[in-house]
Amino acid sequence: MSHVFGPVPSRRLGRSLGVDLIPFKTCSYDCIYCQLGRTTSKTIERKEWVPLRTVLDDLKPKLALNPDWITLSGSGEPTLYSRLDELIADIHEITDVPVAVLTNGSLLWQPDLRRQISKADLVIPSLDGGDSETFQTINRPAPKISFETMLEGLIAFRQEFKKQYWLEILLLEGINADGEPLENLIRCVSAIAPDRIQLNTATRPPAEQSARPVAPARMQEIAARFGPTAEVIADYRNVHAQTDFSSQKDAVMELLSRRPCTTEDIAGGLGIHRNEVVKYIEELTEAGQLAVENIAEKTFYKPTRKET
Length: 308
Ligand code: SF4
Known about the structure:
By secondary structure, this protein is α/β, with parallel strands linked by helices. The chain has 2 domains: 4-234, Aldolase class I (TIM Barrel); 239-303, Winged helix-like DNA-binding domain superfamily/Winged helix DNA-binding domain (Arc Repressor Mutant, subunit A, Orthogonal Bundle). It has helices at residues 52-62, 84-94, 111-117, 132-139, 147-160, 179-192, 216-226, 237-240, 243-258, 263-270, 274-286, and strands at residues 4-10, 14-20, 26-27, 41-42, 69-73, 99-103, 122-125, 164-171, 196-201, 230-232, 290-295, 298-303. It has an 8-stranded mixed β-sheet with strand order 1-2-5-6-7-8-9-10, sandwiched between helices. The longest helix is centred in the last third of the chain and has 16 residues, at 243-258. The protein is globular, with a radius of gyration of 19 Å. It starts with a strand and ends in a 5-residue tail after the last strand.
């Protein structure tokens, strides 16, 4: 399967071409809200998981689709890719489309990684816990990543990186959306001083049921606490109405009307990337068109039946 998927509509980046650099599901975290399910390979080892040449060969034909951004993300944490600087430089050689990196920010304490990722045009790291306890509860990091180390990395990169740095915060009801955990988060964000603060919540089916979404009105109240650079990430329903998105969404519904499937089944059945499937599932679930069923630790989707 290609390592490049989309373009898919992105909340922040319009039509985004996703580049998957990491095998499913390899990450330095195992977040309770992860839409890809539980981490099966928790690691901080950086290596060339996919040959760089293969990634570029997959990318070139997709540039004809005129994406707004090329986004390095993947089925895990993209900064685990050891040749990030060379990859970004090679992309800049073949196109003017800007490159964004979506990262959990856990490894930015490594100076060489900071040097590599600084080649990107936009970096969007995450921060969900403002103290060690909340960090452990939400992100369940690899043992070598302490809260202090992670935070130092986020701050150091901000001081060095002069291009756009947007910080994403995932708020969860009863965990980091009020009281002391929220106050700690606000203090950390003020120390980082990102260009933008983007507040999100668990709207997609999460890895763990304990990851509960925060209500929209409360999200707006919290955004006000973070100050003028904070925003609740807008609903992207309009972008989803694009033709290419709608036809794939219909194909997903058609498949599910035949039998309940996991995201992996859908990706295999339709020959599209798992991350792309997640976008369709999210939209269809939000629209009330899909029901979720957990069987033997696997999440299955099926159409909701309308009463006649
Ligand atoms: S949400 Fe991102 S950082 Fe967290 S486990 Fe999933 S892939 Fe890793």
